[in-house]
Amino acid sequence: MTQRRHGPDVAPNREPIERGLLRMGAVVALGPIMALLDTTIVSVGIDAIARDLNGAMTSMQWVASGYLLAISMTMPVSGWAVARFGAKTVWMASVALFAAGSALCGVAWSTGSLILFRLLQGLGGGMVQPVGQSILVRAAGPSRVGRVMGTLVLPITFAPALGPVLGGVILHGLGWRWMFLLNVPVGIATLALAARSLPGDRTDAPREPADHRNPLDVLGLALLAPGLGTLVYGLSAAGDSSGYGAVPTVWALAAATALLVGYGAHALHARATPLIDLRLFAHRGFCVATANSFLQGAALYSSMFLVPRYYQQVEGAGAIEAGLLVGAGAVRHPHRLRPALPHHDDPMTPSTTWRNTMNLRVTDAEPVRLLAVHAHPDDESSKGAATLARYAAEGVDVLVATCTGGEQGSVLNPRMDRPEVWKNLTQIRRAEMAAARQILGVDQRFLGFVDSGLLADGEPLPEGCFALQPVEDAARPLVALIRRFRPHVVITYDETGGYPHPDHIMTHRISVEAFDAAGDPGRYPGAGGTWQPLKLYYHRAFSRQWFQTLHDAMTAEGLDSHMGPILADWPDAASVPAPTTHVACAAYFDARDRALRAHATQVAPGEGFMAHPREIERRVWPTEDYHLARSLVETAIPENDLLAGIRTDHEKACRMGRPTR
C-alpha cells in the first residue's frame, strides 16, 4: 500500500508575489481609497457647506447622493472603456478626472456648482476601483490574485469608515473646502506613481473585428442614467414637499418608472450585452448577493449622511466628535455629560441630601460645570456669550440648553431674506446654532419645544407652542438634563424674560422650577438621579445703563450713536434685579461677535448690536453682568466670578496660570 507523504517536497508550488506586484497593487489601491473616502468624508461637513453657500439641506443631500449616483452609472461602462482605450489609460484618466473634480469642488461658489462638480468627481471615481481590479487580476494571474487582493483589500474596506473622522479633522482645522482640495496633491502623486508602476497598454495586441466587439449600450445608458437620477429626485421631492401627492413628485416618479421599465424591457430582449444584464438575476446566488450588497450599502451610506447631522444639530457635537462618533461608533468627549458625584438614589432622607448639598465644594480633581438656559438659537450668542467663551477657555464644562428651535423666528438679515431660506428656516437655524456653539467652545442641547413666536397684542399663541406648556411638563426635560450634566451654576433670564417674549418668560419659569426640583428626590421621578446646582443667575444684558454708557462714550468722541433712539423709546418698565456680578470678558468679545454672526439669518453685519465700535465697548464696559438670584454657597457681593464660593483657592490659582484660547 502506498502511503501519502507529507513534507516540503510535495507541498503545493505557491508562486511568490514580487515586490513590484505589491508596489503596483499599493498604487492601484490609492485610487479606490480616495474615491471611497469621498463617499463619506463630506458627511460631517454638510452643515458647514450649507451655511457657507446658503444652501437648503434638501439640496445639500445631492452633494452626497449625486456623487454616489455618478459612481453607480460609471461602473457599468468601465468594461467597455477598458476594451476600447486600455486599462492603464482609463485608470489614469479616471484619477485625473477625480482630482480635477475635487479641485473644482474646492472652489465651488454655489450649491448648484458644488453638486455639478461632485457629479464630475463621481464620473472619475466610478471607474477607479473596477479598472484597478482588472489591472491587478491581469498582472497577478490566477495563482496569485487571491493573495494580492486579500493583502490590499483591508485599507480599501476601512476607507468609508475613516471618511467622517478625516472630514471632521479637516473641517475643524482647515475648513470644508479642504475636504476636496486635499485630493488634488494626492491625485497628482498617484498619477506620477502610476505612470511608473502600472503596466502599459499593449498596442500590438491583435484586435477583433469591429462587428465582434461588445459595443457600448447607448440606448441602455440613455434609459438607465436619467431613470435612476429622476427616481432619486422624486424620492427627495417627496420628503421636501407635501408628500408623494405633490405634482413635482408625481411627475418625477412617473418619468422614473417609465424610463426604468423601458430599460428593463430593453435589457431582457437586447441581442448585444446590455449595460446591466438583468438576466443574471435569474440565478439565485447572484440575486441574494446583490440584495445583500444593496442593503449593506443602504445602511452604510444613509447612516453616514444622517448620523453626523443628528450629532451636530441635535446633540451639539463638533465636527471632529461627530466624525469619531460615526467612524468609530463609540468615541465621546471625556467630559460630555459625565457624572461628577455619586447619584443620590441611595435611601437617604431629603434633609440629609439637602444638608450634604449645602456643604459641597469643588475639588481640584472635579471639573466645574456651567449651564446656560436660553429660549432660542442665537440667544446664547447675544446674551452672555463672552462669559461662556471665557469659562470654556478656562477649562469649565459649559453647556447651553436651547428650549426651542426658533421655528417662528424672523429673517432679520436682508441678504438672507430669500424663499429658500424661509422654507428651510428650522434646519438653517440649527446649523447656525452648531456653528456658534463651536466658535464659543461649548456644548449645546435642544430641549425640543416649538417656538411660540412674538405675536401682536391679542393674537393667540399657536397651539402646542412652548409658552402654552404646563410648567411641570416643560421643566421635565430640563430637570433631566441638569441631573445628567450636573452643573454647579445655572444662568437664565429674570421674571421679565429680558424682554416680553413669551418663550423668554417661560424659560425663566422652567429654569427656576428645575433649579429647585433637580436636587429633590421626591420630585420628577424617572428623570435621573438627583443633583442640586449651587448658584442661579439672571442675565443683565442690554440694560439701560449699558446703552447709556456706550451712547455717551461715542458722542463724546464725536461719533454717531444709533443708541440714542433706543434710549428715547426705552419703556417705563417695572424695576429689574440689580447686577451683583460683573464678569470681565472683554478679551472674548471677538468670539461673541463671531458666534453672533454665525446666526446669519438673525444678524445683519454693521447694524444694530454689531454697529458700535468694539474698542469703545472694551474700554467703558468690559464686563458682562448678572444678578445672583439663588446661592447655596457663601459668597461676597459684589462678585467678579460666577463660580465664586465654588472653586477652591488652589483651583483658581491653577486656572489663572493656564493659557487661554
Automatic annotation (TrEMBL):
Its cofactor is Zn(2+). Gene3D superfamilies: LmbE-like (3.40.50.10320), Multidrug resistance protein D (1.20.1720.10). Keywords: Cell membrane, Hydrolase, Membrane, Metal-binding, Transmembrane, Transmembrane helix, Transport, Zinc. Pfam families: MFS_1, PIG-L. InterPro entries: EmrB-like, GlcNAc_PI_deacetylase-related, LmbE-like_dom_sf, Mca, MFS, MFS_dom, MFS_trans_sf. The keyword Ubl conjugation does not apply. GO terms for molecular function: hydrolase activity; transmembrane transporter activity; zinc ion binding. Binds 1 zinc ion per subunit. GO terms for cellular component: plasma membrane. It is a multi-pass membrane protein. Zn(2+) binds at H376, D379, H504. PROSITE patterns: MFS (PS50850). SUPFAM superfamilies: LmbE-like, MFS general substrate transporter. The chain crosses the membrane at residues 21-42, 62-83, 90-109, 148-170, 176-195, 216-238, 244-265. Its EC number is 3.5.1.115. GO terms for biological process: mycothiol metabolic process; mycothiol-dependent detoxification. It catalyses: mycothiol S-conjugate + H2O = an N-acetyl-L-cysteine-S-conjugate + 1D-myo-inositol 2-amino-2-deoxy-alpha-D-glucopyranoside. It is found in: Cell membrane. Residues 24-661 form the Major facilitator superfamily (MFS) profile domain. Coiled coil: none annotated. Its main location: membrane. Monomer. A mycothiol (MSH, N-acetylcysteinyl-glucosaminyl-inositol) S-conjugate amidase, it recycles conjugated MSH to the N-acetyl cysteine conjugate (AcCys S-conjugate, a mercapturic acid) and the MSH precursor. Involved in MSH-dependent detoxification of a number of alkylating agents and antibiotics. Belongs to the MshB deacetylase family. Mca subfamily. Belongs to the major facilitator superfamily. EmrB family. This is Mycothiol S-conjugate amidase. It comes from Nocardiopsis gilva YIM 90087.
